[in-house]
Amino acid sequence: MKKILLLSLATLILTVNQSSAQKGVTTILQGSATDAEALMRSYLNPMGNAFGAALNGGWFNTAKSHGLARFDLTFTANFAFIPSSENNFIVPNGNVIKASGTSATSPSISGNSTTVGPTMNVVVQSPLTGNDTTVTTFQMPKGLYFKSVMMPILQLNVGLIKQTELAVRYMPEGNVPGVIDSKTHLWGIGFKHGLTQYIPFGGLAPIDIALQFGYTSMGSALDISVKPDATAIPTSTTDYSGQQLKYNVTAWTANLLVSKKVAMVTFYGGIGYNHSSSNLILAGKYPITTIETSTTSANIGKFKIQDINDPIDLQFNGIKGGRGTLGVRFKLLFFTLHADYTFAQYSVLTAGLGFNLDLK
User: Under 8 Å CB-to-CB from 94, ≥6 apart: which residues?
Assistant: First the structure.
């Protein structure tokens, strides 16, 4: 399961060149940081939103809280689906990175894998002629046809007092081999509090009602290696070690829950709110190709290497909106099996298997 997660995260380094993701990073950085961030945000946004939606899945499978010191340990797989409306985006025309031709639409990371995006020019002003000079060109990438992402989560729920339940999620940092190696970790905390106790004669009510809240944070660090263009004049710096692509996602959800148990089967549902945000950081020192503009240099007008530090710190707005969940749980002795579907902008299908130490 972790391998599937890391394979999904590895796609976040795809930027421009299908033949080499890391060469693509170099190419897009030859433009201004502002232009590069605008392109990367537009292309990667559906993936970041899908991870946020998946992190908010699987928090509950009943509205009834555990009794004091009772608990369940549950493994869930959350599949977040990317809507078709996110498959394409309008290409932002920057100050340095400009679209060639009239096409203004390009596939996002979830878009068509056979449709090529427009050609982009990286343009700077030549100090010799004063005219705009194209340093390099690249083509916006095809989509990867990613229609969903999967998030595996291990969660412990423990009963406290007053129909209150604490939920803890955790995945320790580790390397999982995929397309590339990545160090990934995940943690989360939440609670559920029964509301039926506040209703007169609530103990006789045929249903359970509760308020639930959950917060999850995921981080990943991908080691990459971007080398300078061999055809450009090098700098004195030769050490480009320590380059990393860091990706962080935080998500929280609040829900009003209701459930009804009939023998071994519990029907449950919830209505609430989704929120997520994500952050993409390109850390380290990177070589980019530019033009020598110094009038005192013998190499004026020639391509040269310029080093930049920590060039990208990209914030994604994430998802913000309502959600509704319907699900069913089966319990046999100490084991549970459940599935639910959350209706939202980025809908989520959840399936889980748990060990439940609660006789109720």
Answer: 31, 32, 34, 35, 38, 39
Compute φ and ψ for 335, nearest 5 degrees. Answer: -115, 145
The whole-angstrom separation of Cα 34 and Cα 96 is 9
Per-residue H/E/C for 309-360: ECCEEEEECCCEEEEEEEEEEEEECCEEEEEEEEECCCCEEEEEEEEEECCC
Tokens of residue 50, six digits: 């899908």
Look up the domain containing 167 and give its range.
2-357
327-350: per-residue pLDDT in tens? Answer: 999 999 899 999 999 999 999 999
Task: Write out the two tokens for 194.
Answer: 């029964």
Which of 192-201, 242-251, 302-311, 333-342 has the weakest average pLDDT? 302-311
What gap in Å lies between CA 300 and CA 292, rounded to an integer? 5
Q: Is 210 helix (H, G, I), strand (E, B) or coil?
A: strand
Query: How far is residue 127's CA from residue 291's CA, in Å, rounded to a whole number?
Result: 8
User: Which residues have CB under 8 Å from 347's CB, separation 6+?
Assistant: 53, 80, 81, 341
